[in-house]
Amino acid sequence: MRVLWVLGGMVLGSVLTLIAGVALWLHDTGPTRAGIEVRVENRTGQDVREVRIEHDRGQVIYRALGKGDTVALSYPVRGESSYSLIAVLEDGRELRGGAGYIERGAQTREVLEPERVVSSDP
């Protein structure tokens, strides 16, 4: 009888450990919390050939952002991060901006104006 209690306790402990491990994994990698979203609005008066977000794990590139268009770009992050935004305009000029510090799950807004990039929270 005592052997059944010990065996049952071991099985229950293993199942609870597995459930806790899966819950922690989902918390760290869940799709709603793991990314940073950057909304880029084109108010330059011309098309944008390329929008590039460079971050510590790589880059996100979006091509052909039309006049007045908005695009939401996202990238995964595990904790704190930062990014640089580079927009190449139709006339060849580059606009630069981006967040110096940002946390997982955050959203930012980057407005491309004719001569600069204005960064803000949405």
UniProtKB/TrEMBL annotation:
<keyword id="KW-0472">Membrane</keyword>
<keyword id="KW-0812">Transmembrane</keyword>
<keyword id="KW-1133">Transmembrane helix</keyword>
<feature type="transmembrane region" description="Helical">
    <location>
        <begin position="6"/>
        <end position="26"/>
    </location>
</feature>
<protein>
    <recommendedName>
        <fullName>Lipoprotein</fullName>
    </recommendedName>
</protein>
